[in-house]
Amino acid sequence: MKNKVVKKTFPVLKLHCAGCAKRTEDILASQKGVINASVNFASANALVEFDTSVVSANELQKAVQDGGYDLLVVDDEDDESDRLEEINAEQSKSLKQRLIAAIALSVVIMALSMFMENAPYVNIITWILSTPVVFWLGRDFFKGAWTQARHYTANMDTLVALSTGIAYLFSVFNTLYPSFWIMRGLEAHTYFESASGIIAFILLGKWLENKAKNNTSAAIKKLIGLQPKTVTVVGENGEQQLIPIKQVMKGNIVLVKPGEQIAVDGVVTEGTSYVDESMLTGEPQSVLKVVKEQVFTGTINQKGSFKFKAEKVGADTVLAHIIKMVQEAQGSKAHIQKIVDKVAAIFVPVVMALAFISFVVWTFFGGDYGFTYGLLAAVTVLVIACPCALGLATPTAIMVGIGKGATHGILIKDATSLEIAKKVNVVVLDKTGTITEGKPTVTNEVWYDKEERLKTILADIENLSEHPLAEAVVAHLKANNQPVDHFESITGKGVKADVDGEHYVVGNKQLLDDYHISISTEQNAESEKLSRTGRTVIWFANQEKVLCIMGITDKIKETSKEAIRKIQDEGIEVCMLTGDVQSTAQGIAEELKLNHYESSMLPADKANYIKALQDKGKIVAMIGDGINDSAALAQADLSIAMGKGSDIAIDVAMMTIISSDLLKVSEAIKLSKQTVKTINQNLFWAFIYNIIGIPIAAGILYPISGFLLNPMIASAAMAMSSVSVVGNSLRLRWKK
């Protein structure tokens, strides 16, 4: 059977902490046929690259289920989204109901314990009230702990189940056999309020955490929401029919009315209108669409109406590519996350060991109440430890950062790209289509042979070339589509071809030198004059002489000058690489106030130039169109493609600027710095919380101040630690 490797994102169910995510990831990675697996605790998604000829999605699901978790496997992506939304809604509703009940009962239990401690039967009443809180409302913790125990592992559920279970059982013993302590001159305390309070606070933390985590994925939900459910298709007889989006086929003629969202990608065939593309490009200005202009899924038509021919539908649309890319990027792991995962994997066993040590130390050295204090300290250590805060620190910031980029027209391929962007100290820019509009036009032409047929020969030869400069020549001259023989493209120099048995070359001066075609002093002077004014010079010659010189200019984008200045203001060196001759490159560099530029660069030269910078210890970002500059993009530490809706560019680069506006580059670098800073803040507070909290919970302050932390306060602190980490990540959304 032929190998078929696919990369797919699966929602993961029953994740309760970072340890669960790591355990699920290990299960998936160990399956035969799985090439790579990454589980994101914050998004509750597994990104799995696997060979479908070796292992199926259902087999992966079975392996995960055997480990105590679950994967949502649905054939149709729309059905998956609906089913996941349904599951999440059910879980949120159940969690809220349990939270309300737990708080209500815990408040009553605490009131009885505080104000009626010595009343008859108060221990029996609090026992009765706390039982449903611990074992019914908190049942998921005990189920999870049992599942983990069966697989000889432990997670957050283990800590909660142990702490509440110990407090509850100790209290039951003291309620039934108070004489055991009274005979020894001690009081028989009960801690039903602690057991129920811990459950209530942790449920509250989970509810707040879920709400906050839902906000971190707001960007992807917004993108998915851009896809309309129905579309108006126009038949051959002009009849209009409203059909579900799933039924639209390539080649259908689609009618777009004022205010409607465009349902699929296509090309306008009739009518004109302005379209709001801000949700894809991040640019607020509406774009005029006329016949032969491209339109994209999810963009919004303004006042006019038009028809377009569907060219890409379903998973092939630009929006679908973007959604898939953002989902994969949000599920990817930063380098530092891998270190945190290793810590999280051993965190729970270490905490359990510390809790046991606390109990032993208190029991032997704590005096008359050593056993009781030891038990309380062990419970408090188990409760206050929070692997969730560690587990959420990096992925929540990554999700928010990548989501924010997507809503501003900056597509970030993975977490590593964000980490690298912060370190970039040299930005290398391709000229055509990056600094300039990418739409060259012929502004000057000097013919040294007045024979009219030469113009159509030149147009016919250039018509076979895919170079943007060739398109400018064809647009300027009228092609006759006469036979062209032995056409050959010579990388970085031009093309050669035969027409009516005669050899012709079209390209730069170097190409003419290669074929030993003589150039007069007058022609050289004309070429230099055009170059000094920023024109790119195209030479047209037969095997004997120069026939024509053309000057072609590519207008510099309105925002390029400001964008380059902003990048330089960040302390980053900017360099322009171009295939143009020295004089042309110099003219453009002077206009842009660039100190560093290189001319007459072939694709291999650009890659070598970047490598030379890297050899000097520079971290280099290369910005190009994602296709012509593929070698340079591949060599760079960070590759940024100017997309303009190109799904090829989206696939090629580590980052894609959809609008092709260079101003977005400084935004991307700034976003990277903000995201990495947020990750560092989250990790600092998560580690500090545990480093300080666990010793206090163990009773380290008791010999000094007589302070012993209440388990309920510890559970509240634990719950808030995760919420605070997610909340700090959400601040990224509003940073400018």
What does this entry look like structurally?
With 736 residues, the protein is α+β, with helices and mostly antiparallel strands. It has 5 domains: 5-73, Alpha-Beta Plaits, CATH 3.30.70.100; 85-219 and 327-398 and 676-734, no CATH class; 228-260 and 265-312, Calcium-transporting ATPase, cytoplasmic transduction domain A; 410-437 and 557-665, Rossmann fold; 441-553, Calcium-transporting ATPase, cytoplasmic domain N (3-Layer(aba) Sandwich). The chain has 28 helices and 26 strands. A 7-stranded mixed sheet has the order 14-26-25-24-15-22-23, sandwiched between helices. Helix 14 (387-407) runs parallel beside helix 28 (711-730). The longest helix has 39 residues, at 77-115. It is elongated. The model has no long low-confidence stretch (mean pLDDT 85).
Q: How many domains make up the 3D coordinates?
A: 5
Structural class: alpha+beta
Q: How do the strands of the widest beta sheet line up side by side?
A: 14-26-25-24-15-22-23
Distance between the termini: 52 Å
Uncertain spans, ≥5 residues at pLDDT below 50?
none
Oligomer: single chain
Rg is: 33 Å
Helix share, percent: 40-55%
Q: Biggest sheet, open or closed, and with what strands and sense?
A: 7 strands, mixed
- Mean pLDDT, to the nearest integer, reads 85
Tell me how many strands there are.
26
Q: What fraction of residues sit in β-strands?
A: 15-25%
Question: Rough shape?
Answer: elongated
Compute the number of helices: 28
